[in-house]
Design goal:
Length: about 290
């Protein structure tokens, strides 16, 4: 019987491999099937970044790669757009090819903005003995602040506003209008660490995590968020989590990665029922179960 099962598994594996190969060969494209951006397409592509571009020419071109050069007349820097063929696949095997377009305008613009206001940001941070870390910002810009341990991070909204306003003043194209400040204590021990935006104010990491868990719970229950009411939350350690019978678990933090060995258990009500959720993943879904009152 074992031998028969083994043969069946082998046959199924061969069949699956054949079907997989057929699927990929059916939709695959060779390098020669790919059309790179022409000059008109390149100009249309960079227009999504800036309307003050000037075309400088095509620096290099062959069958599988074209490099276009532009300058931003308002910002005063040059940037490039590379249109090239890229292979897609897995385990070192290419199944098909696509056209990949990469423009470095956003990076150049970010550096221009940060360079023009970095000294002023550093001066503002110096008044609070805070450190500012600049990352590569995109249209959802972000800065990381490390604050002294004796400060309640929730109360420094005027300080956060001054940083947002400084970046905004150096951002003539308004690309960083949704600036987010991620705020941490220098020791990494404050329970008020979180993020700040001018639109949403200050939100602690725990508050954001609970909000994220509520969204996931509502989605899994196919309910509107307004129907879910949090009863209480509590923290458990990885050791406590390992003792729970919750099947195959892949540990993850839905938001504000970095909790390490600490997880959040959330109890909530929805339409006369009580549920428990934990910010871990089970079979690609957040752990969620109905519990007795």
């Amino acid at each position: 019987m074992k031998k028969k099962r083994g043969l069946l598994k082998l046959a199924a594996g061969v069949l699956l491999a054949g079907v997989t190969a057929a699927v990929f060969s059916g939709c695959s494209l060779s390098k020669d099937d790919i059309e790179l951006l022409d000059e008109k397409g390149a100009k249309e592509y960079v227009s999504q970044y800036t309307d003050t571009w000037e075309y400088l020419g095509c620096d290099a071109a062959d069958k599988y790669r074209k490099t276009y050069s532009f300058t931003d007349t308002e910002m005063g820097f040059d940037f490039t757009l590379i249109s090239s063929v890229s292979g897609e696949g897995m385990d070192g095997t290419t199944f098909y090819y696509t056209c990949s377009n990469r423009c470095d305008w956003q990076q150049q613009y970010t550096e221009k903005v940060s360079d023009s206001c970095r000294a002023q940001i550093d001066s503002i941070c110096g008044e609070k003995d805070a450190d500012c870390e600049w990352g590569l910002m995109d249209t959802n810009a972000e800065l990381i602040l490390y604050m002294p341990d004796d400060i309640d991070l929730r109360t420094e909204t005027a300080f956060y506003d001054s940083i947002c306003d400084t970046v905004s003043a150096a951002d003539p194209k308004g690309k960083f209008s949704q600036l987010t400040l991620y705020v941490y204590s220098k020791s990494g021990q404050s329970d008020t660490e979180g993020s700040y935006t001018k639109e949403g104010g200050y939100v602690t990491s725990d508050e954001a995590l609970v909000d994220s868990m509520l969204e996931k719970a509502a989605s899994q229950l196919d309910k509107n968020n307004s129907r879910l009411t949090v009863i209480k939350t509590e923290k458990i350690t990885r050791d406590e989590l390992d003792k729970m019978d919750i099947g195959q678990v892949t540990y993850y933090d839905p938001l504000f990665v970095g909790y390490g060995d600490e997880f959040t258990v959330m109890y909530f009500r929805c339409e006369q029922k009580t549920y428990k959720a934990i910010n871990v993943e089970v079979d690609d879904r957040m752990y969620l179960t109905e519990v007795d009152e």
